[in-house]
Amino acid sequence: MDAQLPTDLPSDIAALLKSDLDLIPAIAQDVKTGEVLMLAYMNRQSLALTLETGRATYWSRNRNELCEKGATSGHTQRVLSIALDCDGDALLIKVEQSGVACHTGAQSCFHNEISPKPAAGGR
Questions:
Q1: Which domain holds residue 86?
Q2: Domain presence at residue 2
Q3: Cβ–Cβ under 8 Å, residues 26 and 58
Q4: From the CB of residue 20, how many other CB atoms can be counted at a distance below 10 Å?
Q5: Which among 107, 81, 94 is positioned nearest to 29, based on CA atoms?
Q6: How far is the C-alpha of 99 from the C-alpha of 110, rounded, in Å?
Q7: Please, are residues 39 and 61 in contact by the beta-carbon 8 Å criterion?
Q8: CA 106/CA 99 separation, integer angstroms
Q9: CATH of the domain at 37
């Protein structure tokens, strides 16, 4: 990562985030299709980098480091908008996905469907 990129969030954005969060769940959604592509996590630095560069940068819990989506695979996410939920503890990131989103090679990480039983009295 370039040492000149921001490491701190602007104070107005930081003030909107729940203060005790180290990691913020971030849902990536395809801006064209509305498909939910993946759930990842951001820390304040990765959110600052994403805002500055327009490229999705997440915090890898496995590698314990910042990871720009697609840096090694080429399957990038150009960020078009970011919305913070009402509690200040989750992000919805609308992206233009290049290639697939899932490390397994699937378009979306949510490709393993589980069917619930119908609710009692349901339709």
A1: 22-97
A2: no
A3: yes
A4: 6
A5: 94
A6: 16
A7: no
A8: 10
A9: 3.10.20.810
In the block, residue with structure tokens 């009402």: 86
| Residue 80: how many other CB atoms lie within 10 Å | 13
> What's the order of all strands across the beta sheet hosting 24-30?
36-42, 24-30, 91-97, 77-84
Q: How far apart are CA 87 and CA 55, in angstroms?
A: 25
Helix (H, G, I), strand (E, B) or coil at 92: strand
The token pair that represents 44 in the structure block: 């304040």
Provide the percentage of residues in the chain whose pLDDT is more than 90: 79
Mean pLDDT taken over the chain: 92
The SS3 of residue 47 is helix
Q: What is the pTM of this model?
A: 0.86
Question: Which 8-state DSSP code applies to residue 45?
Answer: H
Q: Per-residue pLDDT averaged across 115-121, rounded?
A: 89
The secondary structure of residue 49, as a DSSP letter, is: H
Domain-embedded: residue 61:
yes
Domain count, the chain: 1
